[in-house]
Amino acid sequence: MSDLSAFRAEVRTWLQENFPPSLQNKPPSNQAGRGAKFEGDMETWRLRLGEKGWSTPTWPVEYGGGGLSDKQAKVLREEMRAAGAFNPIGGFGTAMFGPTLLDVATEEQKKRYLPPIIRGDVHWCQGYSEPGAGSDLASLQSFAEDRGDYFVINGSKIWTSGAKEADWMYGIFRTDKSKKYEGISFICLDMKSEGVEVKPIMLISGQSPFNEVFFTDVVVPKENLIGEKNKGWAIGKHLLLHERQGIAGSGAMGATAYGLVEAARDYIGMNGDRLADGALRERIARQKMMAHAFSQTARRFTSEAAVHGPSPAIGILKVAWAKMNQDREELMIEIMGSRGLAWKGEEFNDEELGHVRSWLRSKANSIEGGSNEVNLNLVAKRVLGLKGY
Ligand SMILES: Cc1cc2nc3c(=O)[nH]c(=O)nc-3n(C[C@H](O)[C@H](O)[C@H](O)COP(=O)(O)OP(=O)(O)OC[C@H]3O[C@@H](n4cnc5c(N)ncnc54)[C@H](O)[C@@H]3O)c2cc1C
Questions:
Q1: Contacts of 330 (CB under 8 A, 6+ apart)
Q2: Which of 60, 63, 257, 266 falls between 20 and 30 A from 93, CA-CA?
Q3: Cα–Cα distance list, 86 to 79, 95, 242, 247 (Å)
Q4: Whether the predicted pLDDT of 88 surpasses 80
């Protein structure tokens, strides 16, 4: 038996012994590490998977990860899918902050921050954007004043996803006002610290997934500095590559024309065994082909990133994903016709209300993780080597 076959058998046995059958094909709507709090079988599963390190299969065992090779991780994914199992642990910690720590942090910091991320015990949020610093992020003004053993932070962040529920924030802060890029440091802070105030922002979708965060004389120990003082810009940018990789990667897993055919059958109707509207049939087929091509390309990028680290070329995929997802949502609303105007009321079912909110949410796809324009500028400069960008 090859090593990989033996590993497959080991995974299968482990899943049989540890994955509660009651959860089969019932992933939670939110993950631990993103604010979800579980009970019963879901909590048992989170603890078991986290303890095994298979929530982050390729991270080193010394920090609590699975220590698997990419091929083994693929086997694990396949076997989990076959068993109807899923990873209930995720969030900024596993997608961006953890991978960045593995690349740049000290041993002490890796041992301190990574195990709780792997188990999904801690929910991290990302403090980058400020009212005057979005695309031009390095203009940020929130100031961390160096007082010897600690920093004192004053200022504010905006669009901070999940800040209301988060336990900790990693972010970039100004530590030298006389320099732009060389005056920024990468710092973590406990959201329960005195002087941290979070105000939710209401969105067009009717939800408040992100917030303003205000800092008034917040004391942060020096040990929470990642990398060197005033060298945080490079770390902050590196993390963004992981963010775009994560957006494109999770897009790859979910890249389908999911629900379009079923919705067209219900709302438009059939002509024999074909959809009644020929033009719509072609558009859905086109969307399915795009989703398949995207998924294959994104998987290739993910495999390459596992070997060489994330590349600035990931911006291409991030932009492609945003367009594909927005097109899919638009198509769904068109298919639904007047039902696509659903906002509230008993005449609409939950699925219809959900589709409309999801369509509105997709407007943010071309802004979050860096806007399309900014990603394309980066591709022009760092991938194509074009001057003047
Ligand atoms: C759903 C969502 C979640 C988010 N979560 C977080 C989070 O958790 N933490 C966090 O820190 N931030 C978060 N953000 C903020 C996000 O990173 C910023 O919105 C984004 O970087 C754009 O910045 P801005 O909103 O200030 O727009 P601006 O920078 O003001 O840009 C406005 C417009 O001008 C264009 N533009 C700007 N500069 C250029 C240029 N040089 N060339 C061409 N066009 C340009 C932009 O493309 C955009 O269309 C989130 C945003 C969204 C939508």
A1: 359
A2: 257
A3: 10, 16, 22, 18
A4: yes
Q: What is the pLDDT of residue 305?
A: 81
Report whether pLDDT(202) > 90: no
Q: What is the architecture, at CATH level 2, of domain 3-96?
A: Orthogonal Bundle (1.10)
163 Cα nearest atom in ligand 1: 8
Apex CA 290: angle with CA 285 and CA 294, to 5°?
Answer: 150
What topology does CATH give the domain 124-230?
Butyryl-CoA Dehydrogenase, subunit A; domain 2 (2.40.110)
CATH 2.40.110.10, the chain: domain bounds:
124-230
Q: Which residue has the tokens 């090779």?
A: 69
Q: Which CATH superfamily is domain 234-383 in?
A: Butyryl-CoA Dehydrogenase, subunit A, domain 3 (1.20.140.10)
Looking at the chain, the number of H-run helices and the number of E-run strands are 12, 10
105 touches 232 (CB < 8 A): no
H or E segment at 290?
helix 278-308
The boundaries of every CATH 1.20.140.10 domain in the chain are 234-383
Contact 155, 142 (CB under 8 A): yes
**3-state secondary structure (DSSP) of residue 124:** strand
Name the residue of 97, 135, 139 to mutate for ligand 1: max ligand atoms within 8 A of Cβ: 135
Numbered ranges of CATH 1.10.540 in the chain = 3-96
Confidence at residue 383, expressed as pLDDT on a 0 to 100 scale: 92
| 134 ligand 1 Cβ < 6 A | yes
Structure tokens at 33: 């590490």
